[in-house]
Protein: ABC transporter ATP-binding protein
Amino acid sequence: MRSRVFFAYSREGPAVSELVRFDGVVKKFRTPRGGRQTALDGFSMTIPRGSLVGLLGPNGSGKTTALKVLLGLVRADQGTLRAFGHDLPRDQRFVARKMGAIIEGPAFTPSLTGHHNLRLLGELHGVKKRLVDEVLDLVGLAEAAHRSYSGYSLGMKQRLGVAAALLPSPELLVLDEPMNGLDPEAVRDMRELLVRLQREREMTVVVSSHILAEVELVCDRVTIVRHGRVICDDSVETLLARGPARTVLRGPEVSSARELLDAHGYSVIPAAGSELHVSTSGPSSEVLRVLAEHGVFPDEIRREKASLEDAYIEAVRKADEERAQIVDTNKLSTRGRPHAS
Structure:
């Protein structure tokens, strides 16, 4: 499937702290067998102006569908959506001028240079030629601008896609998996670019990603999606503060410690080498007391704050438990209904 590069033309308007709001958005698609598959099931989230939002969730959770609804590529079945103070899709044409996005990866003419590809796109959308050089420099492709696109690395292709979406200086930039498949150096370059866009250009950025560690480094807000619903929509700082902290044990006796703590109801996660992670809401001294009472003494024990991965896994676990309870309740309710005679 070919990707789409969308352009946004910025113009002045009233400043609002809440740039985008989804409220109870529902979207269903027809399946090949004639059924209906729910992609968004009461999807609700906010995007504050000037924020860098990480949109997280497994494949099929509804992240890309939500972004397509925002961009006007898919029409919602129910719910409301407002962006820049306007109702969508009614005012989609006006709002589209303020947004730039890459969905499903960048796509350009392979035989042309990066500069030529951007220049053609700029002419198509009425962008001045001088901006081509500016955005290429901004994304770090000035030296490779006159090389053939077919010779670009994956990271360079991703950055050229971002450059294309930046040509008209959008107020809101939406990127679907911009770090997918990149090597560590390219991931670092993309991370630095996103931070620069937010801080230096005062741009609002939404990034859909699977790389939790990178989202934790660059984003100030996180939205977690599961089964078409938002199960968490908060600042990274608040999310980490609520997340489960962990006690880290290190030493040759971690296997004994694992069996012991497992038996006492602790959530134990083996790590690389002779290290063990124990999720606990209490202080490390509680873990140490249990181990000492049974003669198990690790070489090292320390307390670590929750990571975004910890918070993500905990949020997904709770959402799955609540969903399972609802399913079980519905099954019991159905069984209890009298059959029609």
Summary: Residues 4 and 103 are 6 Å apart (CA to CA). Residues 6-16 have pLDDT under 50 and may be disordered. Residues 4-240 form a domain with the Rossmann fold fold (CATH 3.40.50.300). The first strand starts at residue 4 and ends at 6.
